[in-house]
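pipeline/complex-builder :: batch 7 item 3
reading input block
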Amino acid sequence: MKRNWPTYLAAIGGALALATIYGTFWVTGVTVIPGTNMLNFAQKIFYFHVPVAITSFIMFGITAVAGMLFLAKKQKAYDILGAVSAETAVLFAVLTMITGVLWTRAEWGVWWTWEPRLTTYFILLLLMGGYFMLRASVEDPNRRAAFASVFGIVAFLDVPISFFSIRLFQSAHPVVFSGAGAAMETDMLATFMTGMVAMVCFGIAMLAVRFREEKARDELEHLKNLLGS
Amino acid sequence: MTASRQIGALLKKDMIAELRTKEMLTSMFLFALLAMVIFNYAIGSSVKRGVVTLDLTSVAGGLAWIIFVFMSLLGLNRSFVHEKDEGCLDGLLLAPVDRSLIYIAKMVGNFLFLLIVEAITMPVFTVFFVKENYLPRVWLVVLSLVLGTLGVSAVGTLLATISINTKARDLMLPILFLPLIVPVIIAAVQVTGGAIVGTKEALSNAPQWIGMLVFYDIVFMLAAYGLYDYVIGE
């Protein structure tokens, strides 16, 4: 049980993801676009899009916390955790972008708009791109860990500030679109929460598997060095 | 030696080194002039109905910040290339100086150099692109340049130290620096542009944008000050 917990967690996540699909298409009704009587089928992507987005943000937060812990304690495990959580964050951020762009297309008729959340995620992806470039271009492991930690922390500070400045930018100019939907019904909330738990379980399971893999790789390197010397 | 005297000594060293060669200031200024020529031909004309020269006043704030942000990349990289190549950084690390003070000195140095070039560039830029007389609001332009440049040098000094120590060296800086500086660009363009245009609508959100710039500057100066010790070397 102890060693296999990521597998179980992934299984729980998978089951809940299926439940979310069921809830999305068979339990919750189709909402109506406020002020019209047009059906808003595209709104259903919300049950996946938002949980995925929040999970990516949690992973990004773990990168920053791992960075702080590394700088404080100088333990290799925190560096590995930072790197793998950044990878998981990128995976979920890409999924967020894809689902977000699909929704934008269905709802607003354009593939891309410089909307605060989309733009913030775009910047987040660029920051993560920088994070991996940085890791790839430092050879000394201690230095790489320190640089990556520092950049992870600074990037994490930057994202909320970006979000608020982009939102202020939008409010300073006429807003054509508004993302706000109607208040959530109980069945919608239940489906949403199921999706939320499913994605967080998936995210943590992936993080754990990747962490073990990297940790094992690191130990292997260490043993090889011992044998070589 | 007190902290302020140590910072002063480090700053003086950078100033003297720069004033001897003037390579950073000249290259940044020439870059700014070249960028303006490119702007004129890239966006200064409309191709829709033959070549019609456009009035760029309404986007002047944005153009100015494009110049300043890319120009700062030159300066920020330069400020550490010498330290690294000529072994000055090792000397600094051996000296009994708190490493966070090295950050402050470097940051202030970069801030001053950028501000000097901006002060020379802005009048030329105004003559070239601005059809509006913004003299009554020039204090607001200056304020936005100071606050924006402070943010640029606060983040840039930290990231330049990181990138100079990587394999990619100066290639690394834009990739790390530009996404982080987005909030500064958004806010500073609004204030600078608003002050240049000067209409009531253009200036209506200026206090909030200035607040945003001040907030960003404080957050990143504190963060970089706290984290600098970890990046400057073992």
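note: The beta strands of chain A are 31-32, 39-40.
queue -> next item
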